[in-house]
Each structure stands twice: as structure tokens, then as C-alpha cells.
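Handoff note, outgoing to incoming analyst
You'll be picking up this chain. Sequence as last confirmed:
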Amino acid sequence: MKSSIRYPLIAILTLLLSIGALSQSRPTGQDPASDPQDEVLRVNTTLVGVPVTVTDRDGRRLTDLKLQDFHIYEDGVEQQVQFFATGQTPVTVLLLFDRHVIGNHQLFIKDHREIAARFIKNLRAGDRVIIARTGHGVTDIFEVTADGQMQKQNLKPKWNLSTAIHDAVSMVIKRMNAIPGRKAILFFSDGTLGYNQEITMNLGSGSLISERKIEQFEKSDEASTAREAEESDQPIYTLVYDTLSDVVKNDLPPWDRGGWKKLNARMRAEHRAGAEYMLMLAKKSGARGYAANDARGLDQLFTAIADEISQQYTLGYYPKDQSLNGTTHGIKVTVDRSDVEVRARSSYVRARPKK
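Most recent structure output, in case you need it:
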């Protein structure tokens, strides 16, 4: 397994309790997102954070639950809930845009800042939004004011995100782990690595189809980012863009059906794998994945996601088994209410100490 990072949530918890409010736990004069360090030292005793959504049988979210209503189990053993926060606490949301879904195609995002503004309208006073692009980094940070306006923050962290999708996902998970308080990530992408390949088609004589791969080294991969999503205490909502070209979706053209069929099948397979990767990230982190075929249908999705984030509970516990063995542990959350549905991540990885 590739090296994965677990952040010292016990230190964060101590800071939060000393201040008395989860949402206001920022050191004086310092923006938590502007921390220049890529990594934070691990600790042997780790608080496991679990965002939880509870709905009744009609799908309405329950927001009146108390600490004593919850039970949390690790590998079948009940744990003591030692941290509890309701959805009334402000949240920091990262909107991460894959730069390869930003363009002029009708299915792509034409203006990521405009998309971000549409999401921010659903947030509440005190909530903060970090906007970032792969291959670039943070472009803007906003905080929602009491009158519902977006107040732009001057300090922006220098994240220098890779264009490689797995490396970018890995870095934002680590960066967000270092920010105290309630958090969530919205990731806009098709999940593919297709932009690392250059395809040349000569449809004159011979109908030649050739390709040249442009390999881009990545330190991370699907497996390592899946484990980091499990280690993280923030839900990752994925908005999966269908960027497969209309030419590939349509019937095969009349020329060289053999060569085109091979290329067509490979491109379809890449996009299926990309969509599966995006949905896996959401599932591992206890969130949901959504199809976002174009920008026009986003407002309804944004309302649903923002409502869920604003009404989530966050539970935290120190595992009775403190061994940092790098294995996956099952999590189950129950509520002392009948006829309810509880949604939370089902597992997490307790990372080994960094050597």
C-alpha cells in the first residue's frame, strides 16, 4: 500500500474544546487553509470522525437528535461517542474542479466560478467555501455573511494541485484533513485519465487510427486514494460529468468499422471506469455520487447536497483498539429511534505510523 496520511484529530479536538465552538476554532491571524505544510504529524491516539445523516421513512432528515440517541460500533464492538456536533455548526466546503471538464463543450463547465456561486447560494452564514482546480490550486475562498452575501477572503493557500487526477485527490484530502471543524468536498470530474493520451485519426486513404500515450507519473492511484477517503472524516460528494464525445456515443461511422470499433470500445471502457472511480470515492467517504451531465441541472443537486451537509451530525470516538495496523475496520452507527434510516461510512483505515 502506498503511504497514507492520518492527521492529529485529537489535537484539533483539544483546540476546539478550549475555544468552545467548533466553527470558530481558528488561530488568531491565521487561516487554517493557508497552512503551507503538505503533511501533519501523526499521533498514536486518533479520534475517528464520522459524519452521519438520519432520515425518517419518508426521507425527511431528523435534526433533533441528541448525543445519547447515537451508538457507534467498530468491528462489532460499541465505542464511546466522545465528540458530537450538529449540522448547526458552520462547515468548510471544498469545490474541486477537474480542469478537463472546464471548456466550451455543451456538457462541460464553462465557468467554474459561476458554478461555485450557484452552490454558495445554498449555504448559511459562517459557512466557508474553498474553490480549487486541478493543475492549478485554490482560486478563491469565500465566507457567507449574515445577510447571505459572499465575502471574499484575501488569504489563499498555495496548494499547487497536480493535473493528474489521483495525485490531486490525494492532496486535497490531506489539506482538508488539516482544517478543523466540519468539512465536505464536492468533486467535479469525469474520473478519467483519457487526457494523457493523444489519438490521431487519418480518415483519408486507409482509415488509419493510431495513438501515442503520454504517460504522466502519479504517486497516487485508485487504491491509495480510496484508502485516504476511508481515513478522512469528511464526505466527498462526486459530480460525475459525462464527457464522452457524441461521436463515440453514436452508431459506428461507415469507414473502417474494425479500427473505429476498437477505439470506440476503449474510450467507453475508460469513461465507465472513471465514473466507477468517482462513485467509489463518494461511497468510501460516506457521501453520494451524482450524475451531472450538464451545468443546467446542477441547482437541484446543489440544494440536495447543501441540505444534507447542513443537517449532518458528526460523531467522534477514540477506538478501544489503538493498534495502528493499516487495516480496514468496519463502522456501524445506530439510533435509538424506530423507522429511521442512518447513513454513514461503513469503514475506515487506521493508518500505520509514518516512518
